[in-house]
Write a structure and sequence with these properties.
The protein has 893 residues and is an alpha/beta fold. Mean pLDDT is 92; it is low at 1-5 and 429-439.
């Protein structure tokens, strides 16, 4: 269930207009009546099938009848006016609901009905509704098109002049893609006044040179902004040659964008004035807003439909011809180019602007998001995707508002341009305390890395590394793989480059004999061509040029790294070895390492108006190459598929969860019986076990489970017990009745009344001990974690994680990413585990986490993996009260 039942939400219509969506009720009677009475006779006929003086009042009475479990009405309003209404009523003893939708005259074809139906469907799913039905006149083409374009499966049955429609509410990929396309189009239109304004007003352009507002005004004026520019100041005089007015209301033209650079306590009042005047976007650089001021600012922007950047930000810029807007207080104008940049830190923003300008890449659009009350990285990715100017996206994110929606957007955008980010906040100091192995493994950095990996985002550790990688991706083709040829004119630097490649996961292969012979014929006699290729200090420019060309055109390698140091030999002969890198376009990426250069990275211009990245350190060059290879690998993979799972009892699982939380309102750990029942709902394999309350039951259970020559494991249990081994609450390898009795007495003597019973199970056969689990992150949603299991799982920290729902590719990556993965595939002659069964287990955990938002943690440790079976030997599950949240539902955060 989304927030629509607790509080109104705001969302964008197809034309970028902001509307407020809320639950309708008794107080809306007169507004609903007015909505229908102001319709044209033809529109009333299409809505009610006939024109009657009583139909409008009956519809208003139905909305105002009060809250009923079988009925829901949602209203859309703009500037306090009701512009649309959507209703459902659940049919008796059914999971189907009948719906009706109405849109005010003058608001048709703006997406009101579609947006309302998306939210109505979300509310209905939470109420257990699986399908909508609706009757419409065949002549009502608009509403039939709305149903058809929703992206949901619709069937129609014609009955004379009427059409009976059935809409299945299942959220599949087609529906999510349709919602995503509508959101993208609306979002881009709403950002036009912000990023391509025709007129800008700067409010707070002080008279002192050090004023932030004055700096922004100066940058806009000096940056050749093509639109109209105004300043607002209470003592209205021209400021640095810009026409100045006492208030927004006195401006001769309503600006599209208002820049607010005034003290925090006054920002809300000015925002209110801007909204009343019809301003469509705000850039608030003011810092220090308290909670009340922040809420008032956002509320004002929503009420008047203004998009907001900031507060507490550096500003924004657009270098497109025809715009040339520099509304920042940076010391230098952003250089024009093709990189889109969005940052939360102004300092990082300045560093990226300077670095991109120095490299000659420049920016298309720059936005300092600041406290990110509205416009976010998700908005900017969608803007860059279609602006026609951006081919590289650079992000610096300290927080995520809607990570799952961001991931979906980034995954799409990364198919058309590289998306890079600085992975900020990796410190283990941010790791939260957790009771289970799964939650302990799901550190913030693990969660973010899972998002970045799945979305195809290149995550770097520093701003410098980000610029290194941007330089390569901007100037060179992507490598097809990880094989690198290293060329150097000094053996030592070639060795350093080879070591860097090994550290970064790149391969430096030996060259085949034919290629080696060709290189030996070309290069000086003392050259070696084993890879690294040492061309020696006596190599000439033309020889080096041909050598690089041979390697770059040969299929033996995917990239060429050329490391050159200045030598007296080259100086004496007048040879320019660096020029050998820049005289011919090559089909594979070529990067240079020039230890003598002062810049960390620079782009060397080539004769074909391209460029080659040159780094002062081999490690920087190699990291950039590794990022490029990883991105190429991600692009080469097909989009994964979330598999359909048979024999899943979602309804039964939800009943178990509800029953437990009814009796444990704050949540808690499930007992062994309920844990097993919940896992059974998802077909998660478990070892045979029995519950025993006393010694007699423990002996009887052991005799049932032991079998001939069998052995038994006994585990103590009490509510809240998580790590049994640490508490020494486990007895292994029990072989007869006397040992079983002794083990039970030991547990009772040590734990007393705390212990409510014991779990008895057969000792498992040998196999690889793994662990698998899920944890619900409050921001990122469900995360599936997999790795080496047993008592040392946290000590060794050999884990991988992916966000649910898992695709087939995600599950495969989980198996192959941990360092222990060779154990699963027969390392050192050990029996291999069954990878299909392991992937099957991970998919079922993913489905359980996706179905049950109340599932805070599920921890299977150990999971015993062998050639013919995968079995959970121990499981713990914790539930908390939590409502479902659809991350893809259209709304402004």
């Amino acid at each position: 269930m989304t927030g629509i039942h607790e509080a109104p939400v705001h969302a964008l219509l197809a034309d970028g207009t902001t509307v407020r969506i809320r639950r309708a009720g008794p107080a809306d009677h007169d507004d609903v009546l007015r909505l229908y009475e102001e319709m044209s006779p033809e529109n009333r006929r299409l809505r009610f099938f006939f024109v009657s003086p009583t139909s409008a009042r009956q519809a208003a009475d139905r909305v105002a009848a009060g809250k009923r479990p079988e009925y829901c009405a949602l209203a859309a309003e703009c500037h306090g006016r009701l512009v649309g209404l959507a209703e459902y009523e659940i049919l008796q003893s059914s999971s189907t609901a009948e719906i009706a939708v109405a849109v005010a005259d003058g608001w048709h074809h703006r997406g009101v009905a579609t947006l309302l139906l998306e939210h109505l469907a979300d509310a209905a799913r939470a109420a257990g509704v699986t399908a909508f039905t609706a009757d419409a006149l065949a002549a009502n083409h608009d509403v039939l098109k709305v149903f058809h374009d929703l992206g949901l499966r619709v069937t129609r049955r014609f009955e004379g002049p009427e059409v009976h429609c059935t809409v299945q509410l299942t959220e599949d990929e087609a529906y999510l893609s349709a919602v995503e396309a509508r959101a993208r189009a609306a979002d881009v239109i709403s950002l036009q006044p912000l990023l391509r304004p025709g007129a800008v007003a700067v409010i707070g352009a002080g008279r002192t040179p050090e004023s932030v507002g004055r700096a922004i005004l100066r940058n806009i004026r000096n940056g050749s902004f093509t639109g109209r520019l105004f300043a607002v100041h209470p003592e209205a005089e021209a400021i640095i040659g810009v026409c100045t007015y006492r208030s927004v209301s006195e401006l001769p033209q309503v600006p599209d964008l208002a820049v607010i650079a005034i003290p925090a306590e006054a920002a809300f009042g000015v925002a209110e004035e801007c909204g009343k005047a019809g301003v469509r976007a705000l850039l608030v650089v003011s810092a220090g807003l308290d909670t009340h001021q922040s809420g008032a600012l956002v509320s004002t922007c929503r009420r008047y439909g203004m998009r907001l950047v900031g507060p507490n930000c550096l500003g924004l810029a657009n270098t497109e011809d025809g715009i040339r807007l520099d509304a920042t207080f940076a010391a230098h104008h952003p250089g024009p180019g093709t990189a889109g940049v969005a940052v939360q830190s102004g300092g990082v923003g300045i560093a990226l602007l300077d670095g991109l300008a120095r490299l000659g890449i420049g920016v298309s659009t720059f936005v300092s998001l600041g406290d990110k009350y509205d416009v976010s990285s998700n908005d900017m990715l969608q803007w860059w995707e279609g602006d026609g100017h951006t081919d590289l996206a650079l992000l610096h994110l300290e927080s995520f508002g809607n990570p799952r929606a961001f991931s979906r957007t980034a995954r799409r955008v990364a198919r058309s341009m590289p998306v890079l980010t600085v992975d900020a906040g990796r410190s283990e100091a941010g790791r939260r305390a957790a009771a289970s192995h799964t939650a302990a493994a799901a550190a913030p950095t693990v969660t973010r890395q899972a998002l970045f990996t799945q979305a195809g985002i290149t995550a770097t550790r520093t701003v410098g590394e980000l610029l290194d990688t941007a330089a390569l991706l901007h100037s060179q083709p992507l490598p097809a793989g990880t094989k690198v040829a290293i060329v150097s004119n000094a053996g030592g630097v070639g060795v350093l480059a080879a070591d860097a490649c090994a550290d970064a996961g790149l391969v430096v292969p030996a060259l085949d004999a034919d290629l080696a012979d060709e290189l030996l014929d070309l290069l000086p006699e003392e050259a070696t061509v084993t890879n690294p290729v040492d061309v020696t200090a006596s190599v000439g420019e033309e020889q080096l040029k041909v050598c690089i060309g041979l390697l770059a055109r040969h299929g033996a390698v995917d990239a060429v790294l050329v490391s050159l140091v200045p030598t007296a030999v080259a100086a004496a002969t007048g040879e320019d070895l660096v020029r050998a890198l820049t005289t011919a376009p090559l089909p594979r990426p070529v990067v240079a390492v020039l230890p003598a250069q002062s810049a960390r990275v620079q782009l060397l211009p080539t004769v074909d108006e391209g460029s080659v990245p040159a780094y002062s350190d081999a490690e920087d060059a190699v990291r950039a190459l590794a990022h490029a290879a990883a991105h190429a690998c991600w692009l080469s993979r097909p989009a994964g598929v979330v598999p359909e799972l048979p024999d899943v009892s979602t309804g039964r699982a939800r009943e178990l969860v509800s029953s437990f939380l009814d009796g444990n309102q704050e949540g808690g750990w499930l007992d062994p019986q309920t844990t097993a029942a919940l896992l059974d709902c998802y077909g998660i394999p478990q070892i045979s076990w029995a519950w025993a309350r006393d010694e007699k039951e423990a002996v009887a259970a052991a005799q049932r489970l032991m079998g001939p020559d069998g052995r038994i494991v006994m585990k103590a249990y009490w509510p809240g017990l998580v790590h049994k081994s640490e508490q020494h609450a486990v007895h292994l390898d029990l072989r007869n009745v006397s040992q079983i009795e002794a083990a039970h007495r030991d547990l009772v003597s040590r734990f007393g009344d705390r212990m409510t019973g014991v779990v008895v199970q057969p000792l498992a056969e040998r196999g690889t001990e793994l662990f698998a689990g899920v944890v619900q992150d409050d921001v990122f949603g469900p995360l599936v974690v997999f790795g080496l299991g047993g008592t040392a799982t946290e000590l060794l920290a050999d884990h991988a994680a992916r966000l649910a729902p898992l695709t087939d590719l995600d599950a495969h990556d989980l198996l192959t990413s941990p360092r222990c993965s060779p154990l699963l595939f027969g390392y050192a002659g050990n029996p291999a585990a069954d990878p299909d069964r392991l992937e099957h287990l991970l998919h079922r955990l993913s489905r359980m986490a996706s179905d049950l938002p109340q599932l805070a943690e599920a921890d299977l440790n150990p999971v015993l993996a062998g050639p013919h079976s995968v079995t959970s030997l121990d499981a713990r599950v914790r539930l908390v009260p939590r409502r479902a949240h659809d991350p893809y539902l259209r709304r402004l955060l």
